Amino acid sequence: MGKGLRAETILFRATRSLENIIKEDIESYGLNTSEFGVLELLYHKGPQPMNTLSSKLLLASSSMTYVVDNLIKRNYVIKYSDDLDRRKYFVKLTAKGEDYIKMIFPKHKEKIEEIFSVLSAEELDNLLISLKKIGYYSRDLNSKKEI
After folding, report:
1. What is the span of the domain harbouring residue 37?
2. Do 80 and 126 belong together in one domain?
3. pLDDT tens across 91-132, in order?
């Protein structure tokens, strides 16, 4: 097996393990990963258009509507139409949603920091550089294919 194939296998296995522990952590707060993603994005970026939420969280618009509707039922977010374009909807945190994400996000961040604490600062910097390189190169290869 070549080193590239070995790296791919290790990367996918590490990603699966990381996803599992993150999913477990998020579910311990009574949320699924999509709901947490919406709350976290709104917490850090403020009110967002529905289409921005969909593209940032890599969800189809119909799936995002379902997620947002579930968060509305729990009184974590509200959805409102744009004053200039009534077809465009924005989502923002309610006071209850903001209080909740403020409470759980530091715990979640702590879990992520714990996972990556196995690496030295230099190793983490190198990992970030390497993953970006692979991601950008793969994206460029994919976009050349579409031409």
Report:
1. 3-104
2. no
3. 999 999 999 999 999 999 999 999 999 999 999 999 999 999
